Amino acid sequence: HTTVAMSDVIHDLSTTQDNYIRTIKTLSYRKLGNSDQIIDANRIMSYDNEIINYPYSIEKELLHAFQMGWKKELENEIENFFNYLSRSSTTIYLVHQQIRLLISNLIFTVMQSGIDPWELYNDRDLYEELKSINQINSIKEWLILDVVDKFIERINELQDIEYRRIVNDVY
């Protein structure tokens, strides 16, 4: 995939950094599914005009499966979530915004479970990691492997310890 972002021609070297940053930000307007694109920073409408349709009902089921540690159900709900994003989101910017909200709710669920998210994720900044991923399938893979699976593994460890404790108490 090739995406080219263009900004204004500069006549004053002091504006080079500002135009470079604007051009880099323009890349987040990349349309999903298009392989090659040219994006003109001067023709882009504001993100404020875009409507975000968040899949709250899918997220509810996803978070329930996450909290319960149901890996298979969770993977199905993640697939549903990303299918919805693929159909309803036009830019990687919108996908990032929706995944940021999902990550916030996943972290909240981790905290409700009594697990320290900083310790679970080894002090990693998940939002910064997400920002560097610009393909929807790569985001899904990252979310499953680096966010969800870590929690599922910990929940299973805690459940195994609790089951062993119960068995020891009985005997």
Question: How would you describe this structure in keywords?
Answer:
single chain; 171 residues; mainly alpha; two-stranded parallel sheet; 2 strands
Q: How big a fraction of the residues is strand?
A: 5-15%
The total beta strand count reads 2
Structural class: mainly alpha
Tally of individual helices: 7
Low-confidence stretches: none
Distance between the termini: 62 Å
Specify Rg, calculated over alpha carbons.
20 Å
General description of the model:
This protein is mainly alpha-helical. Helix content is 63%, strand content 6%. The chain has seven helices and two strands. It has a two-stranded parallel ribbon. Helix 1 links the parallel strand 1 and strand 2. Helix 2 runs parallel beside helix 4. The N and C termini lie far apart (62 Å). The mean pLDDT is 81.
Protein topology:
Elements: E1 2-6, H1 16-26, E2 36-40, H2 56-68, H3 71-88, H4 92-112, H5 117-120, H6 126-131, H7 136-170
Parallel strand pairs: 1-2
Give a brief rundown of this model.
The protein is 63% helix and 6% strand.
